[in-house]
Design goal:
single chain; alpha+beta; four-stranded antiparallel sheet; 27% strand; elongated
Length: 288
């Protein structure tokens, strides 16, 4: 009788085989982690872009509805030189109660000094004369518009905390530039713009109003609150009609802080509606 023996092979893996498996597993983990992180960053960027669009749209909507933030501590009157004079002597500038002044719009100042990454935006109320000697307005300059700020010798010295909103761009977004006429970097650049009620509806106390978007030349980034308000007032003084609903609109370029080579272009009034804010995601970091 023949005897058959069964050879027994050794079980398990060699060290080299184990290292190869670990290396492949590690590479797959890193790849999956990068993919998940990239998707999260893109989601954050998209959320930040929509949030910035909503903030600008909100300002336009509040001008249309006549909402004006105030703390009741300011009084507005027209000086003998027909300029607005705002003080803290008492009273209120609540919509419809002032005999001489009325809420006419809101101005947005971008990249206010103190921003860590160009993310701070201040939204100021803009006041104007309710009427003039003839009883009618034909231009925005007739209303003598200016930011609701405490002034001395017609120069802003303070904007009380309860009189303006501080907004912040989220998800690492930062301002690259604001232009009017077109979104090209060669177009005129500004640091602020405003939404202003249509002249014919100034002083109305109910109902929605037509809204204009106004470019404010001479305003720049990285200005303090007070210097920014002064620049806005200077731009509003004697404003040219060509800067009201400028042809081509106003364009805000914001750079992503979470993804590479991405930016968002927010265009205001470019489609013929001054209060409409369009959003476009760009494949570069400077909206070109």
């Amino acid at each position: 009788m023949k005897t058959h023996t069964k050879s027994m092979g050794r079980g398990g893996f060699t060290i080299i085989e184990v290292l190869i498996v670990l290396a492949i597993t590690g590479a797959l983990f890193v790849s999956a982690l990068s993919l998940i992180s990239g998707r999260q960053n893109k989601t954050q960027f998209a959320q930040g872009a929509r949030d910035a669009q909503a903030k600008i749209q909100q300002a336009a909507n509040e001008v249309s509805s006549g909402y004006f933030k105030h703390d009741g501590s300011m009084e507005c009157e027209v000086s003998p030189s027909e300029r607005l004079r705002i003080s803290t002597s008492g009273g209120s500038i609540e919509r419809g109660t002032s005999k001489e002044c009325t809420f006419v719009g809101k101005a947005l100042q971008f990249d206010v000094a103190g921003s860590a990454n160009n993310e701070l935006v201040h939204v100021y109320g803009v006041l104007g004369r309710r009427t003039n000697a003839s009883g009618t307005f034909t231009t925005l300059d007739d209303a003598r518009p200016k930011v609701a700020a405490i002034s001395v010798s017609n120069q802003p010295t303070d904007v009380p905390e309860g009189m303006y909103d501080v907004q912040e761009l989220i998800s690492g977004l930062s301002v690259v530039r604001i232009t009017y006429g077109s979104s090209a970097p060669s177009s005129p650049q500004i640091g602020a713009f405003a939404f202003i009620s249509q002249i014919g509806s100034l002083g109305a106390t109910d109902g929605s109003q037509q809204v204009n978007v106004v470019a404010l030349p001479g305003t720049t980034f990285s200005q303090s609150k007070i210097q920014g308000v002064r620049d806005i007032n200077d731009a509003l003084d004697g404003i040219s009609p060509t800067l009201i609903n400028p042809v081509g609109g106003i364009h805000v370029c914001l750079k992503s802080g979470t993804t590479n080579n991405q930016s968002v272009l927010l265009s205001v009034g470019s489609g013929g509606r001054a209060s409409e804010v369009d959003l476009r995601i760009m494949g570069t970091d400077n909206c070109t």
